Amino acid sequence: MKVEFKRALVTGAAGFIGYHLSKRLLEAGIGVVGIDNMNPYYDVKLKEDRLAQLRDYKGFTFHQIDLADLSAMEKVFAESDIEVAVNLAAQAGVRYSLENPHAYVQANLVGFVNLLECCRHNKTKHLVFASSSSVYGANTKMPFSIHQNIDHPVSLYAATKKSNELMAHTYSHLYGLPCTGLRFFTVYGPWGRPDMALFLFTDAILNDRPIQVFNHGKMRRDFTYIDDIVEGVVRVMARYPEPDPAWSGDAPDPGTSYVPYRVYNIGNNAPIELTRFIEVIEEALGKKAVKNMMEMQPGDVPATYADIDDLQKDVGFRPATPIETGVARFVEWYRDYYGR
Question: Could you give the CA distance from residue 16 to residue 226 in angstroms, rounded to a whole number?
């Protein structure tokens, strides 16, 4: 079912994906209520600079609050006519979850149930929320399908993202809240996060530092360009999930439900080996990397690869930006932003 909306809530609005999504909505004339706690997990100046661009749009309002602060969240919902909510706020990062697990519980679990409660009580038409390819965990059957079981996460980050999917389904069952989860596959592009491989590698190469290449470069990732991610999110926002009449409790399909709940993969459907990814960065920079070959990190998986057939069937979209194009655009942005 097509959903028309004039105002959306975007949590994590100063973050990488949140910034790009907010900008896209504002340019389409849709009002955006942005929320972000501006936490210092990475350079806050980067978040402030993203936010400064969004403030140029008259349809943008911003609240610096934490999703774990229920009273602040309730106040935002009470004061704003929010039709569709998109949750992109989370404590990100697989490796950091090994160091600071409590941050993930507060942001990804406590914060998410607060958002569910606000959506429920304010009769939000549709909640779209970021899940992650990390939920596939120990699965090895490729490509990863939403119809696969995902009961074997290998990091706390992944476990919190699977928990979000379960919590959202429960609210769809109990209160009829339409919810759609989006499993993002290694998002990259301009204004990207400094803890992600593309940013780390580009910065290190330009500053003559060696790069850490995990699993000796044998990792494969379904790198997905930010514009493709945003296009997928916008299309999903405008489409209510509907109960699947073919769903059966005798053979439960993990990807659909008897309630208004759906989950989709958004990936490029074309995994790239890490060694090739590094070559593309080197080509864009015109400079070779010095590589420190490392073992696999705890919590990491050797490969990700998205089956996106359901996304294409339901919203008519397949990500398709080649890695060479996306990396070149990131490098252009990086050089401009940092004067390199």
Answer: 9
* CA–CA gap between residue 251 and residue 249 (Å, rounded): 5
For the chain, what is the mean pLDDT? 94
Q: Is 338 a catalytic residue?
A: no
Farthest CA pair distance, the chain: 59
Query: Is the separation of the CB atoms in 236 and 315 below 8 Å?
Result: yes
| Alpha helices by DSSP H, 36-110 | 44-54, 70-79, 96-99, 101-104
pTM of the full structure? 0.95
CA dist 200 and 96 (Å) reads: 15
Residues 6 or more apart in contact with residue 276 via CB below 8 angstroms: 323
Indicate the SS3 state at residue 322: coil
Q: Is the pLDDT of residue 3 over 70?
A: no
Instruction: Quote the CA–CA distance of 172 and 180 in Å, as a whole number.
Output: 10
Catalytic residue among 136, 157, 171, 305: 157
pLDDT tens, position by position, 7-42: 999 999 999 999 999 999 999 999 999 999 999 888
What residues have CB less than 8 Å from 183, skipping those under 6 apart?
Answer: 131, 132, 133, 135, 144, 146, 263, 264, 265, 266, 267, 306
Q: With contact defined as beta carbons under 8 Å apart, do 107 and 67 qualify?
A: yes
Q: What are phi and psi of 239, to 5 degrees?
A: -130, 115
